[in-house]
Amino acid sequence: MAVIDASSAQLESAVVAAGAKPRGRWRAWMRTWIPAGTVIFILAICFLGPTVLPIPGATGGDVLESGQGPFSPGHLLGTDSNGNDVLSRLLSGGQASLLIGISVNVIGIVIGGTIGAVSAYVGGLFDTIVMRLLDVLIAFPSLVLTLAVAQSLGPSKRNTIFALAFFSVPAVARIARSSTLRLREMPFMQAAQLCGSPTWRILLRHVAPNVAPQLISFAALGMGIVIVTEGALSFLGLGIPAPAPSWGNMIFDGQQSMSATPLEVVWPSIALLVTVLAFNQLGENLRARWSGR
Amino acid sequence: MSAVSGLLPTRSGSGFGRLGRVAGSPLLRLIVKRVVMAIPILFGVSVLTFWVLSLIPGDPARAMLGMNATDQQVEALRQQYGLDKSGPARYWDWLTGALHGDLGISMVSSQSMSSMLGDRWAVTAELVVLSFIVSLGVAVPVALLAARWPGGLFDRVSMVCSMTGLAVANYVLALLLVLVFAVELGWLPAIGYVHISDGIGGNLKSMILPTLAMAIPLFCFYTRFLRGDIVDQMQGEDYVDTARAKGVGPWRVLWSHAFRNSSFGLITIVGLNIGTLVGGTVIIEQIFALPGLGQLLLQGVNTRDTVVVQDLVIIFAAIAVLANLLVDVLYAVLDPRIRYGSH
Amino acid sequence: MNASHETLSDLTGAPVATRGPAVAPEGLTVPGSRPSPRRKAGRGETREAVLEVTDLRVAFSREGRTVHAVNGLSYEVRAGEMLAIIGESGSGKSVSTRALMGLLPPSARVTGSARLGDTELVGMSEKAMRRLRGCDLAMVFQDPARSLNPTMRIGAQIVEAIRAHSERNGLDKKGAQARAIELLKLVRLPAPERRFHEYPHQLSGGMRQRVMIAIALAGDPKVLIADEATTALDVTTQAQIMELLVDLQERLGMAVIMISHDLGLAASYAQEVLVMYAGKAVEYAETEDLFSNVRMPYTRALLGAIPQLTTQAHSLLPVIGGQPPDLSALPQGCAFRPRCVNAQDDCAVAPTLDEHEPGHWFACWHPAESRRTPAAEAARNGSTAATGTPAATGNPLSKGGEA
């Protein structure tokens, strides 16, 4: 019920539904497309940049060229203490972060979504057991067990993905479960069941399309979390092994010489901030849009 | 007096009678249920930790002793730590030990875990508690001010700031704080911990930057949640209309009606956060060289000290589970709908 | 008898017609006068109007579009009497009363006039309005399960209402508590001392609504607005709450505005009925008069849509065809025209609310036939004088709310 009562709430929603004035529509458009555009730009520049742009490689720089400032010839953002081009490392590091973020979220949605939807749909003892298992996983301070997993598996890109997926799956499963539970009460679901459609078909045709928007908007928020956590792992030396760049280990490297060359910490930090901000905003807007608010 | 009002202070009735009513109260039943539910979760957490760490390829004993150790030395170490036993057997040994307060002996330093934990837990606890106090202490007034005039200047500024703050990783924030307050301004120590016995002033001073690094993202999160929830209440809840129709002033409507109801959601959010927050201490303690549990965990990870890692992962998870339990109970105690059951 | 009609309309008719700016949305004709029906002289003494609403208009603006929720509403309520405002959802009945109390969101623009005694409510500052709310003007909301704060004890919520006006009643905390218990007794809540310490969820729906009424009574209101106050309750409880309201209204000499979509309820309890459609009053008369002699086709359609004992089983109830109008794009002329069975070409010009018969106002060019023949008139007046209770005669609906 809105501010006034049912009837005036109806009035107000009528105003909204009937289409807003250009200014309102423009604002809504901006709200979605500025973060979406930023995300697309970051993806494009990180994945295409290193091959398209005329910049040196991310590793194997000449120590003689180390410590150059921004705008020095051939190095737009300068070089780090090993003489590697900072811009190049930023882009390759971003590529690693995004790849890990996307992989973890895809694993999370596919496995977690399936577990959650099936568990809610089947219900009963199966659901209870699954929920208890998820409770156990969710109880973990994620970074702590990720550390342990990363240590036991050894630092590498693939192992980082596994370690992070360990926590993405239960979170997504929870969301998928609760929205499937809500769906189950809907008349069209009951109609489908009464028609005798097989379970897999109901899950695929009715549950999946209705749960997907929620999962996708959560995944956008999840990208931010995964990228930050991956950065933390790399920062602690348990993520992407040096000399391969990642924003996390660049920040760690920069920290060593922070008082002398603070910019080395600043560049990857800004990249991290902008990326996470864009994904967070995208996720929030998608959620607001799809929940009809 | 009915059973539902058993917790109301009554002058009549013997102590025993009151106790009887409390035992039958929905609150107590709920608390018992939550405690019972926490036990299998703790159990699952420890099993999972054991299982994950047993996946480590290679032999921790060999890894510790290095390449030059003889097979006999390795075998002796394996026996000493029970590594020659099967997984379930080792888990059983650990569990019986842990239940008697014996968490084992570090493989690297050969000290007992209890002595290594020593007063490290206090450092971590101080960091976590201070972070909660600071973040909630600032978030509540900021959210109230923002929700008082939604869409106003303060609201907009605080929402943009909190949105940005939420996207800053705590390690980035930590470095930024060190850069500004320690390196540039020189106001605060960059690293190190002053024990509370060496003066509370120095202790707090050494905790300012770590606390801020933990509290700022948390503050942003709470502010956004609380502001959104209060605005929803102010616009959507009938009891807010009732309060306004009574002629109650706007701040009082905000505080004792909207916020009072929002605070329950806040408690839930805080509970869900504890795990993340406790995990965050690992990296913050590392950056600021605080001798807490997180630092010990990282040492264990870096020296491949399985006993330390295992115990600490379980301790961290247990803290998260127990904190959640505490929050659930707190919620039940505060919410009259649970406290008194329904009619 | 006939002469007295004129004298009474002379008494109050003139000042009402000119008050308040007439801000008309495009395409709407502004009727020149906004009169109110007058008490018939046959009823005896005329009490003074506590609340006089004249040409009240409410518009919501959002993102460039304007919704005209209330479009020139005029009525008055007298102390100790009950006015029922009837209409479908979206007809503006709730919005119009919330506008009086200043409870609309900032996007609402309220114009016209509403005088509570000597005080003009429209355009009043929030601060001044706050002093009136819960004091001279009080409101009971629809859903008692939602309109009480679930986290506060009943007593604290009533005390809060009393303490909010401590500058007026001069009660300290102790005094306010005593007064709160008194109020709970007044609304006949069983075991008030114990309920004082309980939470809303421990009470039944009817008891909660009694608490809401107690809160509303905290400031001795001159006007009590009951916004669908019994809609969420079951029929038995509904009758009890209505009886309580009527009793309190008489004992405390309050004016009550009862908002409802339930014609039966209005017929049973109110002295006057105002039917709203698309933010306007379309018919306005004393209860008996209105129900025994419905003129406006919309009111007739509303009445027709109610099942009655005399309706043959399994026969289809007539429904009002079409949709309620879009308030952001009202049609030219009479708003009910697209759904009206009597609609003709001249309905493209909006009819004004006029007193077509003494004490019976409606806005229609082609009303239903009047049943008020001279003979019936005489009989009716006789019976009114004899019984004196509202809605007692010739009303097929009067049993609806009492069951």
UniProtKB/TrEMBL annotation, chain A:
Superkingdom of the source species: Bacteria
ABC transmembrane type-1 domain sequence ranges: 94-283
Sorted UniProt keywords: Cell membrane, Membrane, Transmembrane, Transmembrane helix, Transport
Principal cellular location given in the protein's record: membrane
Membrane disposition: Multi-pass membrane protein
Gene3D superfamilies (UniProt xref): MetI-like
InterPro entries: BP-dependent_transpt_permease, MetI-like, MetI-like_sf
Pfam family, one: BPD_transp_1
Compartmental location: Cell membrane
Protein's UniProt keywords contain Transmembrane: yes
Keyword Transport carried by entry: yes
Signal peptide positions on this chain: none
Spans traversing the lipid bilayer: 33-53, 98-121, 133-153, 159-176, 215-240, 265-283
Family that this chain belongs to: Belongs to the binding-protein-dependent transport system permease family.
Protein name: ABC transporter permease
Taxonomy of the source species: Bacteria, Bacillati, Actinomycetota, Actinomycetes, Propionibacteriales
From TrEMBL, chain B:
Keywords from the named record: Cell membrane, Membrane, Transmembrane, Transmembrane helix, Transport
Pfam families linked to this entry: BPD_transp_1, BPD_transp_1_N
Family label: Belongs to the binding-protein-dependent transport system permease family.
Residue span, ABC transmembrane type-1 domain: 121-331
Keyword Transmembrane helix: yes
UniProt xrefs under InterPro entries: BPD_transp_1_N, MetI-like, MetI-like_sf
Protein name: ABC transporter permease
Classification via CDD domains: TM_PBP2
Bilayer disposition of the protein: Multi-pass membrane protein
Annotated compartments: Cell membrane
Ranges annotated as spanning the membrane: 35-56, 121-147, 168-187, 207-225, 264-288, 308-334
PANTHER family given in the database record: DIPEPTIDE TRANSPORT SYSTEM PERMEASE PROTEIN DPPB-RELATED
The keyword Membrane is assigned to this record: yes
Automatic annotation (TrEMBL), chain C:
A single GO molecular function term of this UniProt record: ATP binding
Source species, domain of life: Bacteria
Main location: membrane
Cited InterPro entries: AAA+_ATPase, ABC_Ni/Peptide_Import, ABC_transporter-like_ATP-bd, ABC_transporter-like_CS, Oligopep_ABC_C, P-loop_NTPase
Biased composition range(s): Low complexity: 384-394
Keywords of this entry: ATP-binding, Cell membrane, Membrane, Nucleotide-binding, Transport
Gene3D superfamilies noted in UniProt: P-loop containing nucleotide triphosphate hydrolases
Domain ABC transporter: 51-303
SMART domains reported in the protein's UniProt record: AAA (SM00382)
Biased composition (Polar residues): 1-10
Membrane topology classification: Peripheral membrane protein
One family name in Pfam for this protein: ABC_tran
Region (Disordered): 1-48, 373-403
Subcellular location: Cell membrane
PANTHER family reported for this sequence: DIPEPTIDE TRANSPORT ATP-BINDING PROTEIN DPPD, OLIGOPEPTIDE TRANSPORT ATP-BINDING PROTEIN APPD
Family designation: Belongs to the ABC transporter superfamily.
Name of the featured protein: ABC transporter ATP-binding protein
Source organism: Nocardioides eburneus
